[in-house]
Automatic annotation (TrEMBL):
Residues 43-253 form the DUF58 domain. PANTHER family: BLL2464 PROTEIN (PTHR33608:SF6). This is PF01882 family protein. Signal peptide: none annotated. It comes from Candidatus Nitrosopelagicus brevis. InterPro entries: DUF58, vWFA_dom_sf.
Length: 290
């Protein structure tokens, strides 16, 4: 019972924390810039010069002896998916874990979709797509997604973004907006990302922590790969080692960003140093200006 109370409390805290962003810039720009691309039938009306003859409704025309055309409007039934990386590397964090920051981002997206009356779904992945919930509307459904996300216990500590995105590509049919929240440490995911991007509006949310690129001077210490368990003793008082560590980390992240940019996929960077609300506001502001 106490676990359920704690979970409900966390959901309520997330709703309060993200409310300003959802009610403000994110709601407006989200609705105006990220909409469904399909069309749906609206009504039949009399033909006027310039109408597309392919839209003539011949049944109504035959009954009335006047040309009538079908009118269509842009489909507003958008599907939004939050894909969340639950591998062990996202447990890392100096002041706050990357996973906790990711929860705040996910809550903002879910509540914004709910406010816009859009369908929202959830995918949780590690070295494979472990859990998937199809997109639906409504507050009850949205809160259920958050409960699932916050209480989820991953089956694997490993990351394989490539395999997870390939599975997602085969599952998603209708055009959707897909937010992928991860630290993108797993390599070789560009091919499935390209597949997804060709059919869907894909937005990457990159979770990072300052200690992944900057080591403090604390003498000899043990570094451990949280996913593989591999350990390595290093001397952090060695300035050349610290500089090399930072250089390698920054170069690796820069390569990923450049590769993603070549695919024309957008990425939002979020960390303790770049608060999620600031990063998302800037991102949606830029989208509105394009």
């Amino acid at each position: 019972m106490s676990e359920i109370k704690d979970l409900l409390k966390r959901i309520r805290e997330l709703e309060i924390k993200t409310k300003g962003l959802v009610d403000g810039m994110m709601a407006g720009s989200y609705k105006s810039k990220i909409r469904g691309r399909g069309i749906e039938f609206s009504e039949v009306r009399e033909y006027v010069l310039g109408d597309d003859i392919r839209h003539i409704d011949w049944n109504v025309t035959a009954r009335t002896n006047k040309l009538h055309v079908k009118e269509f409007v842009e489909e507003r039934d958008l599907r939004v998916y939050v894909m969340f990386d639950y591998s062990a590397s996202n447990e890392f964090g100096f002041m706050k874990s990357k996973k906790s920051i990711g929860h705040e981002v996910a809550a903002s997206i879910i509540f914004s979709a709910m406010k816009n009356n859009d369908n929202v779904g959830l995918g949780i992945f590690t070295n494979k797509l472990e859990h998937f919930v199809p997109a639906r509307k409504g507050r009850k459904h949205s809160l259920s997604l958050l409960r699932t996300l916050l209480a989820y216990k991953p089956k694997s500590a490993q990351t394989d973004i490539e395999s997870s995105l390939l599975q997602l590509h085969h599952i998603l049919g209708q055009h959707s907006v897909v937010f992928i929240i991860s630290d993108y440490i797993s390599p070789n995911f560009l091919r499935p990302l390209k597949f997804l991007k060709n059919r869907h509006d894909v937005i990457l949310v990159n979770l990072s922590d300052i200690r992944e690129s900057e080591l403090p001077d604390i003498g000899y210490t043990m570094l451990e790969d949280i996913e593989s368990g591999e350990q390595l003793m290093v001397n952090t008082s060695d300035e050349s080692f610290r500089n090399a560590f930072t250089k390698n980390s920054l170069e690796s992240h820069e390569k990923i960003k450049n590769d993603i940019k070549k695919l024309k996929v957008e990425m939002v960077n979020v960390s303790e140093q770049i608060p999620f609300d600031t990063a998302l506001r800037q991102f949606f502001n830029q989208r509105m200006r394009r």
